[in-house]
Specification:
homodimer, about 325 residues, 6-stranded parallel sheet, elongated, Rossmann fold, Peripla_BP_I (chains A, B), 3 domains, DNA-binding, 12 strands, about 15% strand, DNA-binding transcription factor activity (chains A, B)
Chain lengths: ~325, ~325
DNA sequence: GATCTTAATGCAAACGTTTGCAATAGCGTT
DNA sequence: AACGCTATTGCAAACGTTTGCATTAAGATC
């Protein structure tokens, strides 16, 4: 079994130095002679010694932890199932680790109302990355103005008192829609939820292109919950009631696009011959579906890096600004 | 801006009691008069007071944190992209929170070799949930025999010195394969990686059913990396070199199944008329693909709850045993 | 050889909780 | 009036680091 936990003092005794020296040695403090440092570090390794993070955090008043707060709209407790969001979290995780920080995975359920108190005063994390602006914008705003180091994954165009990193959703909407038109679409349909911050920008992009092409009369908006199931259902229903009165879909996300695609395929509407489809996100499934899905790619890896970098800069006391990530059109069979 | 952080002593002073009383009051210790307790709790709320978790952990020698260690096979640093794994993590997160614990998201990159030292001695977490047995079984074994509270998501049939929670993969393989045969399949193909712990069991289930039906001669194994891309590539290549010499596929995961499906559809092989397909996991995409994918559903929510429950039981000092989750066949259009 | 400088190390306080034990107050019993 | 009992509360130590300051050792300078 495990022998009793070594503390720094024990290690120091073994090495025949004081705890201060041991501490400094482990932190590679140049005050300590190079040789001594190496000796103690080696000793620590052979004895499987680890510093007590709790003690260290108490003394240093910082945690080397970044909290990631997944901001679910749902009032209902439920796990995330959009693969895109999960990908974002996973890429943040990587970026966080690469900077030598650890990642506390949290959500509004744990953090309660007073995020500043919970995370910062509570010494659970040094800063927070919020994934998804959702409807809790009030909580974000409050935490931010309380001085909490904070970066949000959302739409950078949002006018807010906090730093936002996100794709250029407006441009993405334009590119996607323009692509539809270029491919001959005359009756474009937007499938999504314009109330939502990021998706709303995509819709605005859609509208601007449609207007420029004088197609406003023939364009449509189909408002749905942003799940593939809802997309499937509502396209189905629309086909039943209105028939096929559109020839191109810009879906607000890939999951939504895939749901719509399924409904169309079941009714033998040919993609891309009868209806063109463009999605958003570029999740793994976009490439694997049949026909494969044309989409707007969001660079989640870059996103993760940028979110973390901006947060660390804030922690260092410097001012930071929101920024927008470039998007790119990935052309596949559905268009 | 933020006024200076209140400490327990300050709150106590405001309330006109000692810190001990304040501490006990916040922890609802019955030593303190009911009335006093309520008064102090209310005061804490109005002043946005939060206990310093670092100090608390130092003193208590426990963290109320559970670490989730994602055990990637890949030597290459890379983010996870199998939606199923992410779903598992997300459901663990929920279960962890429901028990009043927090979730530290980690991976072998951060934890290094000496997991016990890093998590337990380092006072970063009270216990660890490992997702995926992967190839690091040695690290797991070592941590476990060092006495680390630990539960692994994997295949419960594995003979190992640690507690495992997982689906009945063998039975799942049998059910899936039997279903193929019931639907008239005469030349079943297993698509996956039999070396892998969980997938290997699925393959064994496949074999046992095939044997019982005297189809061993006509059954095939196609060994691939477990990504949809690899599945797509290898089915493509197989069609080119061998032609269509199978009429049913049991894919080791839904992502793999979807990759295979795409290859088949591109060559106008009809699903389910020419080839039946059954997957494993029941990710969201299984329902949305066209044709929708018959699959073996794993109950990730139950998994999350069970993993956490078993870990907490271990923390309480009791012995725990591995256990198997029931699986179920979800029949859709692909079969 | 006394003094100064520099390099390396040690001492002890502080971070903010929790808790065993001691202390106090209030009240009934003899 | 002294005592014992119970219900509350307070005192002070301990958890294991880190770091400002003091100290020591060793070499350099006059």
């Amino acid at each position: 079994m495990q022998q009793k936990k070594l503390k720094l003092a024990d290690l120091a005794k073994i090495a025949g130095v004081s705890t201060s020296t041991a501490s400094r040695a482990l932190n590679d403090n140049p005050l300590i002679k190079q040789e001594t440092r190496e000796r103690i570090q080696k000793l620590a390794k052979t004895h499987n010694f680890s510093l007590n993070a709790a003690a260290s955090r108490l003394r240093l008043q910082k945690t080397k932890v970044i909290a990631v707060l997944i901001n679910l709209d749902a009032e209902t407790e439920q796990s995330i199932d959009d693969p895109f969001l999960l990908k974002v979290v996973s890429d943040i995780n990587l970026a966080v680790n690469r900077q030598g920080y650890e990642l506390l995975l949290s959500n509004s359920y744990m953090a309660g109302e007073d995020w500043y108190g919970y995370f910062i005063d509570g010494r659970r994390a040094d800063g927070v990355i919020v994934v998804g602006q959702g409807k809790q914008q009030a909580s974000i705003e409050r935490a931010s103005s309380a001085g909490m180091p904070l970066v949000v994954w959302g739409d950078p165009k949002t006018q807010a008192g906090y730093v936002i990193v996100g794709s250029d959703n407006f441009l993405g909407g334009q590119v996607a829609t323009q692509h539809l038109l270029d491919k001959g679409c005359k009756q474009p349909l937007f499938l999504g939820e314009p109330e939502h911050a990021e998706l709303g920008e995509r819709y605005k992009g859609f509208c601007s292109v449609v207007e420029r092409a004088n197609l406003t009369e023939r364009a449509q908006l189909l408002k749905i919950d942003i799940t593939s199931q809802a997309a499937y259902d509502s396209i189905n229903q629309k086909l039943r009631s209105d028939g096929l009165d559109f020839d191109g879909i810009f879906a607000c996300s890939d999951m939504v696009a895939l749901g719509a695609m399924k409904a169309l395929k079941e009714r033998y509407v040919s993609i891309p011959n009868d209806v063109l489809i463009v999605g958003f996100d570029d999740i793994a499934m976009a490439d694997v579906s049949f026909p494969s899905l044309t989409t707007i790619k969001q660079d989640t890896q870059k996103a993760g890096e940028l979110l973390v970098e901006k947060l660390l800069t804030q922690l260092a006391g410097e001012e930071v600004e929101s920024s927008q990530l470039a998007i790119s059109l990935v052309e596949r069979q559905s268009s």
